[in-house]
Amino acid sequence: MIAGSTSFYAAFGLQPQNVVGRPLFKLGAGEWDVPQLRSLLSTTLSGLARIEAYEMDLKGDAAPRRLVLNARKLDYGDTEQVRLLLTISDVTEARISEKLKDDLLREKAILLQELQHRVANSLQIIASVLMQSARRVQSEEARSHLHDAHNRVMSIATLQQQLAASRLGAVELRGYFQQLCESLGASMIHDDARVSITVSVDGSSVNADISVSLGLIVTELVINALKHAFPGDRGGKILVDYHAQASDWTLSVSDDGIGTPETLATTKPGLGTSIVEALANQLEAIVETKGGHPGTRVSITHTDASIR
């Protein structure tokens, strides 16, 4: 050792008179005598390599300290007196903080996973209870309301499953809507050859909170189409479409069914319509319903102009 900085002496409890002129590996109680460090310094001294951000544990009488070492050969043109510059950073506290953070994140992930399992199980239980109740009631109106509630709970279960898989990051809408519509079709369509649901979505991805609102809108509009567009043995198709350009986007659900009777135009909006309107307002979007000739098309459109 030729010289050491004041911070080096203070950090490792050394005195200059006990350092200068002694080999690095003889400092302290010999804790610096590490084979890997000897090899790296020798390689650097020969000019074949240099140490960059090499981490090692310094084990002494106290708890081990985590160090980051950098070493380079100093070129003074004197081949007889080759010197190395060794810098040492004590990152013990930083590594402890990182480990604590990682442990907390791991614990949070485990708790979140457990919560998701419990939510999924609870939704399945609720859906089962609703279906059992629907089978027991005598009133056709009550049975219809219970079936609606069951379908909505199942759609929420699908939303929860998709969002759990996305880990609350960006949600890719094509697969998301596809899975949602498959779940709705499985619970409400009794003859796949008669009624079908098609999903046409570009490669858009949105934040998890926005995907929840969009998924609920799709759920309500698809349920509404399945209930009203194809009475009796009438067949047809439902199309769920989503396309975006920059910050503007349009979500639409259309069918080729009987359309919306004019007598319903002046009636009080149902629960599904109210839910769609509320969610659209939350997304700062505009809802528009048009006759499809045949059928009905409901569009939810978000543009910068609609915000203003």
Sum this structure up briefly.
With 308 residues, the protein is an alpha+beta fold. The chain is 46% helix and 22% strand.
What are the defining features of this structure?
308 residues; alpha+beta; Beta-Lactamase; Heat Shock Protein 90; five-stranded mixed sheet; three-stranded antiparallel sheet; 10 strands
Rounded to the nearest angstrom, the radius of gyration is 34 Å
Class inferred from helices and paired strands: alpha+beta
The CATH level-2 architecture of the largest domain is identified as 2-Layer Sandwich
Element pattern in H and E: HHEEEHHEHEEHEEHEEH
| Residues in helices, as a percent range | 40-55%
How are the SSEs placed, and which strands pair?
Layout: H1 6-12, H2 35-45, E1 51-58, E2 65-74, E3 83-90, H3 92-136, H4 140-166, E4 171-172, H5 173-188, E5 195-201, E6 205-206, H6 208-228, E7 236-245, E8 248-255, H7 271-282, E9 286-291, E10 296-302, H8 304-307
Helix pairs in contact: 3-4, 4-5, 4-6, 5-6, 6-7
What does this structure look like?
The chain is of the alpha+beta class and about 300 residues long. It folds into three domains: about 5-90, Beta-Lactamase (2-Layer Sandwich); about 95-170; about 170-308, Histidine kinase-like ATPase, C-terminal domain (Heat Shock Protein 90, 2-Layer Sandwich). About 45% of the residues lie in helices and about 20% in strands. Strands 5-7-8-10-9 form a five-stranded mixed sheet. Helix 4 runs antiparallel to helix 6 (about 210-230), helix 5 (about 175-190) packs parallel to helix 6 (about 210-230) and helix 6 (about 210-230) runs antiparallel to helix 7. It is elongated.
